[in-house]
Specification:
By secondary structure, the protein is α+β, with helices and mostly antiparallel strands. The protein folds into two domains: 133 residues, no CATH class; 71 residues, no CATH class. It is built from six helices and eight strands, in the order H-E-E-H-H-H-H-E-E-E-E-E-E-H. The strands form three sheets. Strands 3-6-7-8 form a four-stranded antiparallel β-sheet, covered by helices on one side.
């Protein structure tokens, strides 16, 4: 079911319920606070601002760049609904900007001052922010699968990565947030999608290893 504009703002800014496997609801923080927390973590900072050397990781430039874009977009949206003389708003606070924008937008809707094109643009902007933050927080990952390809006529175990003899596994898994995990073979391009097919792949690899 398509989310309302208010629900999209909540997903970005506030704690909200997310449906997980089995229809259960799981409470999660808003995407913008999670993005900001990932920036702190990449600098080795805790909530209190203290640096923890053993938690410090590579600076997540993608998260910083995206946060700037989110802040700019939220401020832009707010500026388009405010009128001269309105109370000033800290445009460096994207959640505050979006919450204030939602208040003004809701009032404009009730006054009949919005149209379908404006609603579509607002929805597209909010959905795009959510999708881009999701991608930064949980990017596509690729992992090797050990074992030879069980596809008849292939059977390859390794895939060369350069001309100096370096190689990786022929089989690999692709993990895309929100989509079924998928395994592929570099050589024959055979694909296994979802838990059931990956279990079949694992069984086939184990069977090959036992008879090798």
């Amino acid at each position: 079911m398509r989310k309302t504009i208010a629900e999209l703002v909540a997903v970005l800014c506030d704690e909200h319920d997310v449906e997980v496997r089995g229809g259960r609801l799981h409470r999660e923080d808003g995407l913008i606070p999670k993005l900001r927390e990932s920036m702190r973590a990449s600098m080795g900072m805790t909530h209190g601002g203290h640096s923890l050397a053993h938690e410090r990781s590579t600076l997540n430039l993608a998260a910083f760049t995206l946060y700037e874009h989110v802040t700019f977009t939220a401020g832009l949206m707010l500026g388009q609904v405010l009128v001269a003389g309105d109370d000033p708003v800290d445009r460096r606070d994207p959640e505050g900007s979006l919450r204030r924008w939602l208040e003004e937008w809701t009032l404009a809707v009730h006054r009949g001052e919005t149209n379908d094109a404006q609603e579509a643009l607002a929805r597209r902007r909010l959905s795009d922010l959510a999708a881009r933050i999701d991608q930064v927080l949980a990017p596509t990952r690729v992992a090797e699968i050990l074992g030879a390809c069980p596809n008849p006529g292939c059977g390859e175990r390794y895939w060369p990565t350069d001309t100096q003899g370096s190689r990786t596994s022929a089989l690999y898994a692709v993990l895309v947030p929100g989509e079924p995990v998928q395994a592929r073979c570099h050589w024959c391009d055979t694909q296994w999608t979802g838990e059931a097919e990956l279990e079949q792949l694992n069984t086939a690899i184990n069977r090959q290893e036992k008879t090798a």
